[in-house]
Amino acid sequence: MSTTIIGALTGAILAVVALVFGFWGFLLTALFMAIGAVIGRIASGKLDVRAVTDAFTGRRTS
């Protein structure tokens, strides 16, 4: 799947959730989608957690 299709599906899911569950349901769904994306990036090895923590603590710049 291309990134355009994934982005369109994500937008469609968030739109349906916003219509069905309202604003707070939308925010909760968006938060869980973001957490899932980060976990997926870590599991696939595309995100180095140590580099991210070093950047947040000021040890290294990004």
From TrEMBL:
Highest taxon in the source lineage: Bacteria
Task: Give the keywords, sorted.
Answer: Membrane, Transmembrane, Transmembrane helix
Segments traversing the membrane: 12-40
Pfam family of this protein, just one?
DUF2273
Q: Which InterPro entries match?
A: DUF2273 (IPR018730)
Protein name (Swiss-Prot/TrEMBL):
Small integral membrane protein
Instruction: Tell me what organism the protein belongs to.
Output: Microbacterium oleivorans
